[in-house]
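pinging the channel bc i need a second pair of eyes. not urgent but kinda urgent?? the chain im working w is below, pasted from the shared doc
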Amino acid sequence: MFEVVAFYLFAILTIAMFTITVMTKNALYALSSLAAGMIFISAFFFLLDAEFLGVVQIVVYTGAVMALYAFGMMFFDSINDVEEKIANPRLTFLLTGSVALIVVVIFMAPIVGANIDANYPMGIASQYGGVTGNVQDVGVVLFTKYLIPFEVAAVMLLVAMIGGIILAGKKMDRDIILDTEEEQEHLHAFVTKKDGV
């Protein structure tokens, strides 16, 4: 009975938070409701006795991804309308093709993975560590059967982080140059006015 009540409660709260995320025009409200919705999603994992996934949902999505969104909001003006300018259509075509290839690989992965057996099936981690649980079983399978996808995901996150740092660095350099030019104009106007007086 408790699980049913908790499921419907968290389902209603999750839908409400994501509705606010989509419908609101305030970026801060959207960010806050998105973080709350992610936390409510983690409750479903705890109800299913998947503690590892629940903790990962909170730490990765609610913590890291929300912090990344908040960091990105500081660099962009969310009030003005965004105008898209495609400077290099070939690059756009290449990126679109890459995304399509990644989607095909994702859909083909279960077919390829069905023929791969884990060295240690679920539940065998208790024989080695003396402790049984969801986290231990996920760790054993993650670093045996799914080691290569895990490493590929790590490399992709590293590339995304480096790209974000480069983009933020270019914007900061441009802002510093503009601020320096404006300060020089103000100083020149001040000196000219002072000499004229």
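so DSSP finds seven helices and no strands in the chain. and The chain has two domains: 1-78, 117-197. — does that match what u expected or am i reading it wrong
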